[in-house]
Fold:
Amino acid sequence: MEELGKIKGISQSIKRINQKLRLLKLLSRAKEEYEKNNYEDCVEACLKILESNPKNPVALRGIGCAMQSMYQPEKAIEYYLEALKYSEKKEIEYTLLGTIYYIQNNFDEALKYYNLAIESNDDYEFAYEGRNQAMLENHLMLIDLQDELIEREIRGN
Structure:
């Protein structure tokens, strides 16, 4: 009986290892397709991962990145927010969300997410870079607005 239990344990271990190998293979494929700008194939590989592991933050994040690259920011945001629920490295999703809002010139929202990324991991350089850029853009917008108001005042409008 004891040997049967050991055999079952070994069998379960082998199954888990096979699942992890399959997952790694699919993640590698998704990354490779993304890097080749084959975004639909990247999404397909990520969806296969989600079939067996629907809470996989890397696959959800991968689909979000592909959607962002395919100019579908709202779908990208949905996938990033879903990945955020299950992610241990939330600073990545927060930074990706900040970047989408930055691209959309929504600097207040971008700053919010960059700050959340920094709160999650104060060593995450990408969040600092994004936040600094968003703050700079926001400042430049304010200067442009101020210049426009001064110009209106001078013209008497």
Remarks:
- Residues 2-35 form the longest helix (34 residues).
